[in-house]
Design goal:
Family: Belongs to the IF-3 family.
Protein name: Translation initiation factor IF-3
Radius of gyration: 44 Å
Keywords: Initiation factor, Protein biosynthesis
Largest sheet: 4 strands, mixed
GO molecular function, one term: ribosome binding
Shape: elongated
Structural class: alpha+beta
Number of helices: 6
Helix content: 40-55%
GO biological process, one term: ribosome disassembly
Number of strands: 10
Order of helices and strands: HHEEEEHEEHEHEHEE
């Protein structure tokens, strides 16, 4: 009888244990972590932390009337799109402002500018000397063979090649004078050198004004 009373008393004084699933514990900790990342103002309203905006680089924009404005690339593109214009870069980086320079152009202006750029590029490539050509002449050469070599020299000079000529033999000076005379209308003579019975000189295409 005493033993049964003791067992009932022990069961009566036991406290109930509230078991919670592990998922509820993880969710509670996650919510607490997120709450710590929020800022609460004086009135108790919750505000999220906003990332700082990165400033957009600006360009110098030239209008149709050469008016100058400083805007972002996005604004300039939208302006041209609304007005049906082309946005063309004319300077990569301006030394004074350290900004790229763009210009608004109509379709006709853009085509003229593009054509002019191609024309200037072609003229620059045409006026720039190309790979060197070498001509060896012996003083025993016949007149017909000499004329054939001179014709080749004319062709190379017309294609903007530099021509290096080496003449050997007792009459090297006379042959050199004759070659120079035959090509004087289409060449410039530079660096004529004489050593023994050898004469060397270089023919360049004429300069164009």
């Amino acid at each position: 009888m005493l033993r049964r009373f003791t067992a009932n008393a022990i069961c009566a004084i036991r406290l109930p244990i509230n078991w919670q699933p592990a998922s509820n514990v993880c969710l509670s900790r996650t919510l607490e972590f997120k709450k710590n990342r929020l800022e609460i103002d004086d009135e108790g309203a919750v505000k999220k932390i906003r990332p700082k905006t990165v400033p957009q680089p600006k360009i110098t924009l030239l209008g149709l009337d050469k008016d100058i404005s400083v805007v972002t690339m996005d604004v300039a593109s939208k302006m041209c799109e609304r007005r049906g214009l082309k946005l063309v870069k004319i300077i990569d980086i301006d030394a004074k402002t350290q900004r790229p320079v763009y210009q608004m152009m109509t379709a006709n202006q853009f085509l003229r500018e593009d054509h002019q750029n191609h024309q200037n590029k072609d003229e620059k490539n045409h006026n720039q000397p190309k790979k060197e050509k070498t001509v060896l002449i012996n003083c025993r050469i016949g007149q017909s063979d000499l004329e054939s070599k001179v014709n080749n020299i004319h062709k190379w000079l017309s294609k903007m090649h530099e021509v290096r000529i080496t003449i050997t033999g007792d009459t090297a000076n006379e042959i050199a004078d004759e070659v120079i005379k035959m090509t004087q209308d289409s060449s410039r003579v530079v660096q004529r050198r004489e050593k023994g019975d050898t004469v060397k000189f270089q023919l360049l295409p004429p300069k164009k004004s």
